[in-house]
Amino acid sequence: MPLAKNISEQTPRDTLFINTKDKQFESEPELSYQWLYDKVQALIGGDEIDPEENLLLYGLDSLRMMRLASELNQRGIKVTFEELGHEPTVANWWILLQKKQKAIFIS
Question: Is the terminal CB of the chain with fewer CB neighbours within 10 Å at N or C?
């Protein structure tokens, strides 16, 4: 069977479409302080947290910090587990993420 020269020879035009319901096309929530706070709150089990308090005191462990680092990296913010572990508070992480975002825009 010979290959079609172009896509219009293969598929009728009225059947060509983009499925915007696919997960890859869903927009992610904007990275904000509230997003970070909510994400950390979910990681530690939904309790209210003091943004200045060490998150290890709330039971945050290294596995959950690695999960957060991975999610941030998937969003294009290059952050390491070591950076998160250095000063594990929501307030410090927000400062770190703002610096990382500025570095992305400057590059």
Answer: N
